[in-house]
Write a structure and sequence with these properties.
With about 140 residues, this protein is an all-alpha fold. It has helices at about 10-30, 30-35, 45-65, 70-95, 105-130.
Length: about 140
């Protein structure tokens, strides 16, 4: 496989992530009207819409990524998603382990981690592993 290509299986993962994020984002965006018990504590309507808008933005970005075939064009938005997902996971862990947040938040943590693992895997495959390999075409020269 070519590490510079964003392959079909990767594009399918991006599309799946985008659709899931779009659904979750829309639910949060319209949470004040839906009155669903998605959050264990009360949050204001403005905050629910803010959270929803961020997740919708991530979903639209992931759906757009699913149309790209070149990793270089995918990298910036994938980096944003990886940073966002990492910060969410760390924040959730902090609240769960040290601030005794509701165990309900483990559900959100378990939803976030698989996406993070995929993004970490993408960066390892496309950016880190190729840099660790020896450049092709270069011969090693023994000195001494």
């Amino acid at each position: 496989m070519n590490h510079q290509v964003f392959s079909l299986p990767e594009r399918v993962l991006a599309l799946t992530a985008g659709i899931l994020n779009l659904m979750v984002g829309l639910i949060f965006f319209f949470l004040p009207e839906l009155q669903l018990p998605l959050w264990p504590v009360s949050i204001s309507s403005v905050l629910a819409r803010f959270i929803g808008a961020i997740i919708i933005g991530n979903g639209v970005g992931a759906i757009w990524l699913s149309t790209e075939r070149e990793w270089a064009r995918v990298r910036p938005l994938a980096l944003v998603a990886a940073v966002y997902g990492t910060l969410v996971a760390l924040g959730l862990l902090y609240h769960l382990l040290w601030l005794n947040a509701s165990a309900f938040f483990w559900l959100y943590f378990s939803f976030d981690v698989p996406f993070l693992l995929v993004f970490y895997g993408l960066f390892i495959y496309h950016d880190i592993a190729p840099r660790l390999r020896k450049p092709q075409g270069m011969k090693q020269v023994k000195v001494g």
